[in-house]
Task: inverse folding
């Protein structure tokens, strides 16, 4: 696309920037709270084999899931308003540029929205799998213990179930990391056109 006149860019740039920063702020809020909750520590065998620590972890996961749902609702409402602003700004463009820019920018917006939805999907998958992990240790608490600093499971079937759950947890985390990587690249590509930087 050819660069637009400055008077149009001055209205479009803040709107497109807001689409980018809205998602980044939500992700930052979620990640910050997850760090504060110290959920990474729950994968320590000593915590997994402690009923008290497992119960505390369930409460923390419930809080994180509730925060995800709350921020998603707020994000969706905000994006709806931003989209209306973008439509209005596009309608001010010269007639011969409206279709070109409308398709291009709306396509980028839809991609950002889909990526945000995937972020919620992957994080919820991580939470759900972690809940399954805690439930496994709770249900089979008599068949899982620590010996010489190592986690011991009473059967191969139990070990296989544990491996499947941890694979799901790792898979969700990896999928989210890849999403954030490609998202950063996509946002960076907007820079030459709109002066937007990756978040």
Result:
């Amino acid at each position: 696309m050819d660069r637009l006149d400055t008077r149009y860019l001055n209205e479009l740039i803040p709107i497109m920037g807001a689409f980018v920063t809205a998602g980044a702020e939500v992700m930052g809020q979620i990640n910050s709270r997850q760090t504060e909750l110290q959920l990474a520590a729950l994968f320590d065998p000593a915590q997994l084999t402690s009923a008290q620590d497992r119960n505390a972890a369930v409460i923390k996961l419930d809080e994180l899931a509730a925060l995800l749902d709350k921020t998603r609702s707020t994000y969706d409402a905000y994006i709806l308003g931003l989209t209306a602003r973008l439509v209005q700004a596009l309608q001010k463009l010269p007639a011969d540029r409206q279709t070109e820019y409308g398709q291009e920018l709306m396509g980028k917006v839809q991609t950002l929205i889909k990526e945000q939805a995937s972020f919620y999907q992957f994080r919820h998958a991580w939470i759900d799998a972690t809940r399954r992990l805690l439930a496994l240790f709770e249900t089979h608490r008599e068949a899982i213990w620590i010996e010489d600093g190592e986690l011991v499971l009473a059967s191969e079937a139990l070990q296989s179930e544990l491996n499947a759950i941890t694979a799901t947890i790792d898979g969700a985390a990896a999928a989210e990391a890849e999403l954030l990587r490609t998202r950063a690249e996509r946002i960076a590509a907007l820079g030459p056109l709109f002066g937007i930087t990756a978040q």
